[in-house]
Amino acid sequence: MALATVHLVRHGEVHNPDRVLYGRLPGYHLSELGYEMAERIGAHFGARAAAGASIVSLAASPLLRAQETARPTAAALGLETGVEHRIVEAGNHFEGMSHVAARLREPKLWPLLVNPFKPSWGEPYSEQVERVMEAVDEHRARAVELGGDGAEAILVAHQLPIWVTRLAAENRPLWHDPRRRECSLASITSLDFDGERLVAVRYSEPCADLLARAANLPGA
């Protein structure tokens, strides 16, 4: 059975001075710091490839911030960035609102909060896991086809879909406190496979030293 790894990369910081929960809204591009994070991620994977890693596939969510984050990695690896719709940000009924935490005091929004386990305010966690893992499996198989044993693929996505996919991979409940997600900006959640079997989950933060300067909203 061929070994393979799929890296789930969260995008860099977004230019969002009004602190809008932007979700799937178009036009939200990286901030200056976000571009710095994207360059750091590109250098990280470029160094891995130079050291012998067989990174053969790169795709990103269709949203602008993910596509922009992927560009330096594409340049470093000499790969084209595919568009992978299954790893897009989660749907959320609060999309477009600013300062969401403060607005949750408004009674008209309370019906959206009745079931945090699903959650009732957006796309069910289980559906996010299903679509992301479908993409992961396809890109894993494609990486092995292109690069053989030990091949790696990169998918640039968003915090919530990455996090709930990790929770599922580790057999943990999908319900969680958004403030406790271990999925920082420009972080890498790596899924290691032996054939079709997931054997390990790893997490790293190549941009850890940049996070103190970032406006890191919990997201969807």
Automatic annotation (TrEMBL):
Pfam annotation, one family: His_Phos_1
CDD domains reported for this sequence: HP_PGM_like
Signal peptide: none
One annotated Gene Ontology cellular component of this protein: cytoplasm
SUPFAM superfamilies: Phosphoglycerate mutase-like
GO function terms (MF aspect): phosphatase activity
InterPro entries, per the entry: His_Pase_superF_clade-1, His_PPase_superfam, PGM_Phosphatase
Name of the protein in question: Broad specificity phosphatase PhoE
Organism: Zhihengliuella flava
